[in-house]
Amino acid sequence: MIQLFTTGGTIDKVYFDQKSDYQVGVPNIEEILNGANVHLDYVCEILMQKDSLDISQADRQLICERVANCPHRRVVITHGTDTMIQTALALLPIPDKVIVLTGSMQPARFKHSDAQFNVACAVTAVQLLAAGAYIAMNGRIFDPRHARKNVKLNRFETA
Amino acid sequence: MIQLFTTGGTIDKVYFDQKSDYQVGVPNIEEILNGANVHLDYVCEILMQKDSLDISQADRQLICERVANCPHRRVVITHGTDTMIQTALALLPIPDKVIVLTGSMQPARFKHSDAQFNVACAVTAVQLLAAGAYIAMNGRIFDPRHARKNVKLNRFETA
Amino acid sequence: MIQLFTTGGTIDKVYFDQKSDYQVGVPNIEEILNGANVHLDYVCEILMQKDSLDISQADRQLICERVANCPHRRVVITHGTDTMIQTALALLPIPDKVIVLTGSMQPARFKHSDAQFNVACAVTAVQLLAAGAYIAMNGRIFDPRHARKNVKLNRFETA
Amino acid sequence: MIQLFTTGGTIDKVYFDQKSDYQVGVPNIEEILNGANVHLDYVCEILMQKDSLDISQADRQLICERVANCPHRRVVITHGTDTMIQTALALLPIPDKVIVLTGSMQPARFKHSDAQFNVACAVTAVQLLAAGAYIAMNGRIFDPRHARKNVKLNRFETA
Fold this sequence. Notes:
The structure is a homotetramer of 159-residue chains. Chain A has 159 residues and is α/β, with parallel strands linked by helices.
């Protein structure tokens, strides 16, 4: 059984015509898993729906508590990319859990998006890795202590 | 560096209107990797373009030789699903290589396809697994000695 | 009110993995109209589900009878491209009806397909044209007496 | 020969991750026409790249001048939906031109968008209509003097 938590971020962004701006919508990770003929046991819960720049220390603490207290060993978290590393670092001390954070640079609703690929990476990695907190982006698995988001190149890389 | 080999199968099927039947086309795995903002070093080579039901023992031997002799430790092979398990079993004796086979139930060119998800699983798994031959399908990693294709449910499962 | 009739053809082709061949599936024209925020009154009926090369004279006569006897003046027919012109010619003598045939070179289920564009052309043309039988393909409206399918270039053109 | 002019609007909106807001990008109408196997002669020119709420009277006058002075009789204009009717009304006095405005409620880059359908309607209508200025949205052709955008239902309707 895999526990999925969603926190918002670009992966779940939705565009509303009236307001002419993006808003965070319902989680796309379940739609991605359903659409890819995936055959895994999982539960999904929305923790919050925020741009990752708006995730406060209190939010981050809530995420840590929910991960630490959830009954499942394997946890995937979708998260905005701007502060994904901070949240992963906050999750590092949690023992006996395999925690993989992922997200996307383009909204899952776009014709061309990295969301499906990244979710697949995270769901695979969470089944294979030892306990710890990791980031799955751009086809790679990062240790958050040695990762950075390269804003210019729009990707994560080893720091 | 990851070595990608393609052998054909549904993932690469293309439809030609004139002939009213499917034919195997250029490999989609590179297009999938390029489209998902993936940042990995890889080389890709077409070994054959066949329905997996048409892969002969000679074809299978060729695949084994090419994998065994390629300079890279990590190898992903796209393959038709009907005989993917046989090919994986044939690859098992190869030492010191991490070999992951994947493919799809729906052509990569379809609007709704499992191809992108499966390729992402395979590319992630090949980076994390120990030496051996594996199948990445339906969001899971299978040992080919304990896997079967459930034709009715259109998915792979533990045997 | 627009009457939609479907007869099969590439636009409705579906791929079944087990059989490794295409089969004609449920009509995609309604899914296209629903997905494009279209606000029109229409009814849709499946007349047959055939490759247009398999449409017999009896089939063609049935299509003509159903069009002639339907209560609506404006009729769109989805049809395979190989004999679309013959069917359009057979429909020409029907008085007081605006009849537009369309279809696609690539199945509507493909990521890249001309199906949505062609359906939009047909639905627009049927509202604007005078009584007669027409073909809407490749962004143009053809008189079937002066049209041919260019198989090499994979498009319709004026003959 | 059809003249295409683009002015911006939702149809051309692009999302930039860094800024977390939408910006108007390169015109999608040409990509739509190329992707649909359309075989028409056309030229395309970007007049401006604006949200239609930001189109000033000076902008509108520029659009009118460019349409009136272009060498082609048939003109399609992509435009934001919020002031599409005003621009169409401003174009009404131009003699001897068939002018069709279109746009979309969802960006063309979204997986699910009305952009392709609307462009197909406009391109078809501009070939069939008499001189005048029209709006092609939601599968219908509107006289701008008798049209309104229903913001709640997110569609155009007869006023």
